[in-house]
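BUG-252 | component: ligand-complex export | severity: low

The export step for zinc ion jobs runs without errors, but we want the raw record kept on the ticket for reference. Input record follows.
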Amino acid sequence: MKRSTKNKIKSVIRSVVDPAANDYLESRQNFSYAPFKLATYQNLLQQASKDGRIRVGRFGEAKSSKDHINVFIRHDIDTLKCVQNIDLLLDSDLHMDFPAGVYFLVDDDEYRLQDFKQVAQACKEKGFETGLHTICYAQDDYMGQFKLETEKFADEAGFRPTTFTIHGMGEKRLSVRKAFIREMVKNHTKYGYTFSDCHKAFRGYHHVIEDCHMDFSVNNRYIFDDFNEFPSFFRKGKNYLILTHPCYWEQD
Ligand SMILES: [Zn+2]
């Protein structure tokens, strides 16, 4: 089934199951184009801190609270600029004492983790869950590749990753990606992992606030107004993710 058809079906289901969420998603507005202002991120964290209903959970732990709106924060380090900008967002998390997750690639394409061992170790020492951003499903032998990536991460960062996230490749190799996820849901402990948010068996999200929406007409990333203010449809007992790539952010 085509993804656009799937999305339409999803939207119809959502409008019945959660009309408030559906209304929001149908009417949300572009808030700004990259580079995004750090103050926008810090403002969202402030809202999370002040709103007694919200609990910012440890990214690398599956548990969440029935009595709170559960918000998790994840930073995917996709590019050299992401590494260079990493402290912009992490210092803000640290200031609020929010236990975000930070995920590094080891494919040596945009940057080499071996050049940033101290950066990865500093993330871990500051209490952030620091793990592997895998792109193993680009290979036909995706499990062999996943094992190689895990070993490479351990060699280059100086510690073994026990959690991972998956680097997106758009519509490419979705069936391989799904096969990888199926294997990890069943056997992640066998590979030395405790958690990933790649499947709802670990943790599902009711909504993701992300900084990587693409406007092809101007060839730039943008954020919706959910980054300016938490949507009103957020509910206790559900999980929500703030997903960033630090390369899209700048000091005001
Ligand atoms: Zn990525």
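Assignee comment: Attached the raw record above. The mean pLDDT is 95.
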